[in-house]
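User: Last request for today: this protein with C2E, please.
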Amino acid sequence: SRQCGYCFFDKQMSINMSENIKDRLGLENDLVTAVKNNEFELYYQPKISCITQAVTGVEALIRWHHPTRGLVPPDDFISIAEDTGQILQLGNWVLDESMRQQREWHKAGLTIPVSINISAHQFNADDLMMNVSEMLVKHGCDPAMIELEITESMLLGNADKVNQTLHQLSAMGIKLALDDFGTGYSNLAYLQKYPLDILKIDRAFLGDQTRSMLMGTILDMGRVLGLKVVAEGVETKAQVNWLVENGCDQMQGFYYSQPLPVAGITDYLISYCTPDALKHKAA
Ligand code: C2E
Ligand code: MG
Ligand code: MG
Ligand code: MG
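Assistant: Here's the final one, the structure of the complex with C2E:
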């Protein structure tokens, strides 16, 4: 704890708070150059079928190579970029780069769906549809190979607009996933109302017995609603066994792989590739 001479009021918490504010302002400034210099990279994490153990897709997860801080995780800068509006440019870059990569893999014989996280700002922007379709055309991507991940809070806006956006995306052939399900304002009505394809259950539901019971209920609900259910944050063999036994569709987590840079995930995809499917050996 610091001494400041004439002042005995130096609670660690207020120091931490002002450090955090300085940190945030620093990152906010640095983001301007980062966007200009393209200091970002997409990592990819595989999703695995509970039934066949095949790789069913990969999720693109952004990383920032900060010139002095090193690798900055998205939780440290996405919300800042949201506040400043830079997320629109950044989000467009993510669409561009992940679709380019999907197409490159396809041309190399690895046809794999790619999931892309969409921010609230992006989701509400009037040009989302145009940006998505432009990128699809630019890279010649099959829309069925693209999944967009949105979160529950994005469904809370103007219901007509949300409905229109989701229906337009869905009509393009894109798959829609509800990310971090269970952590937000979970209104079961919109699971039925909106054209969603996939529920991604937050990793908070993997844990003790009570959470497993809740997970079981969510799996049942997904089945009733005809949604594919993906369990996030799978870290242990015991969790894998439980999810397989309880009828989960897909799993994603460190048990299978950390998010990897392109070279690493490409090797991963190739090593689980059989003539007709991308099989996972750990079955
Ligand atoms: P998310 O979309 O829910 O992504 C899953 C996060 O969980 C990732 O963190 C991933 O690395 C982490 N994870 C995966 N498996 C495990 C596991 O077994 N255990 C644990 N403890 N964690 C696991 P990451 O990459 O740091 O991303 C954090 C969040 O940042 C994402 O959560 C997403 O909301 C956001 N994000 C990432 N990339 C983008 C992007 O390109 N655009 C936008 N708008 N948001 C992004
Ligand atoms: Mg996600
Ligand atoms: Mg998630
Ligand atoms: Mg998350």
